[in-house]
Amino acid sequence: MKSDYKEYASEWRIKDVVKKYSDYISYPVTMDVKKEEKPKDKEGKVIEDAETITTIEEQTLNSMKAIWKRDKKDITDEEYSEFYKHISHDYTNPLERLHLSVEGILDYKALLYVPSNAPHDMFMRESKVGVSLYVKNVFIMDDCKHILPEYLRFVKGVVDSSDLPLNVSREILQEDKVLEKIQKNLVKKVLDLLKRMKEKENEKYLEFYAEFGKVIKEGLYSDWSNKEKLADLVLFESTKTEEGKYTSLKDYVAGMPEGQKEIFYISGDSRKAVENSPHIEKFKEKSFEVLFFTDPIDEFVTNSLTEYDGKQLKSIGKGEFELEETEEEKKKKDEIKKEHQSLLELIKDNLKDDIEEVRISNRLTDSAVCLVSKEGGLTPQMEKIMKSMNQEVPKSKRILEINPKHLILNVMKGIFEKDKKSEKLGNYAELLYDQALIAEGSSVKDPVKFTKRLSELMVFEGSELSK
Questions:
Q1: What's the start-to-end Cα distance of the chain, in Å?
Q2: 197-252 pLDDT, tens per residue?
Q3: Gap between the Cα atoms of 450 and 161, Å rounded
Q4: Which of 62, 279, 360, 431 is the most buried (most CB within 10 A)?
């Protein structure tokens, strides 16, 4: 052997190679192993003064126990758990397992596990998938990315195929039709397992979702062929759930009141931020449930999951809404719009560098103002995500909506009727815009200017009250 490869003739290296690649083949791999030991006396004690004796004995290097090829009824829960710990290097028991034996057009066996805890590197770029590929009990490779899609990378286990050649390479696997069919079948089986868990063992599913819900959502925009199955698996908090509790899209649709045609959601950084958002006020009043999309990945989900059960998903932070308005309500809204049209145009003119339009809102009940995006526009959360990824964010102006029932509108109208050129109107317009930014969790453009105007307003109000 070449000097660079002499280690492969050493005993420890041979053992290591056999253990890694041939541990589960059904025939024994043996080797003569040299042993050096001191003799023992009649009582079995080592004679320390005696010379060391060298012996040669035949040793079997592989276990020959391919657990995935055994009948399920002959394998105990303890054996399943021990094998999981062996291949995953995890000290906890798995949450669920899937043992498959497929014969016919395809011939393969698989033993897959759903872990109890997410690995620390699950969201790292260099993270590895947990499934190893075997061919006829011979180890081919671990971290086989062609067995399951990336969003199921948390699954651990082995797949053993009899239809692949022993010399198969990673490059060949990329275009192998057999492995493509195996992957399609395994994805279906894993998703069916999760669905059964969700329907029959909900507490266990909630444990799973707390650890792996984010990666399941990845599948919604990467696996179009299974989008409907994945949509049944995702969960969200909402205006009708307690903190830490979830609802599914199926349950949401089942609870929709008569007349509601869309599935409403709001995006934000946290539950606290979205449940106190001005955008949600009218929906609460009408008892329309609103889903909370608070994971960063939810913004990407909405780009692919546009509907569920024939109901469109609609952001309450975009576009306009007509929430079961009566003809009388619509007529009154048009009258208010006409009454305040000149004032709205003045506010728009003062904020022309930041907003595209000022309009009367039909989604506010208590708050004075809110900012909404155009239909199809980027939400503030998506802009933050894009900036954090060092992506260029196109400059866009949003729409300022004003609550027609709020006292501030009448105050501004009174000032406007007395003096259309009053400096106070410009200050009020700026304060309204800053207030809308703060309410959605964004930063004001000029904090110093904002605090100065707010202080001046407080002083003015205080002096008016003291008269």
A1: 104
A2: 999 999 999 999 999 999 999 999 889 999 999 999 999 999 999 998 999 999 99
A3: 67
A4: 279
